Structures are given as C-alpha cells and as structure tokens.
Amino acid sequence: MSIWRVLLAIFFPPLAILDKGCGSVLIVLLLTICGWVPGVIAALVILNNPK
C-alpha cells in the first residue's frame, strides 16, 4: 500500500480502489455518499487486504 493510495483513499475513497473490482468500488461509493468517514474506512480496509 503506497502513500499515494492512502492519500487518495482519504480524499476520494472510490478512486483509490478502482483496480479492486466493480463491487468494491460500488460499496465504497455508497458508503462515501452516506458519510465520508465510512467510505474512507472501507477504502483503507480494502487497500490493506493483500488479495
């Protein structure tokens, strides 16, 4: 996980996980719409997953 991905996950979470799949992007997008903090947390968790 690079520092650029972490910064991108903090400022615009769905953009940080574009390469992780459509389902992940949709989940993070919905969480970001509901509130910025849940979107950031979900993006960081997905980025931290090695798979």
Automatic annotation (TrEMBL):
Domain of life the protein comes from: Bacteria
InterPro entries referenced in this protein's UniProt entry, alphabetically: PMP3 (IPR000612)
Transmembrane segments: 28-47
Keyword Transmembrane helix carried by entry: yes
GO cellular component term of the entry, any: membrane
Alphabetical keyword list: Membrane, Transmembrane, Transmembrane helix
Main subcellular location of this protein, as a coarse class: membrane
UniProt xrefs under Pfam families: Pmp3
Annotated localization: Membrane
The family this protein is said to belong to: Belongs to the UPF0057 (PMP3) family.
Designated name of the protein: YqaE/Pmp3 family membrane protein
Source organism of the structure: Aquimarina algiphila
Lineage, top ranks: Bacteria, Pseudomonadati, Bacteroidota, Flavobacteriia, Flavobacteriales
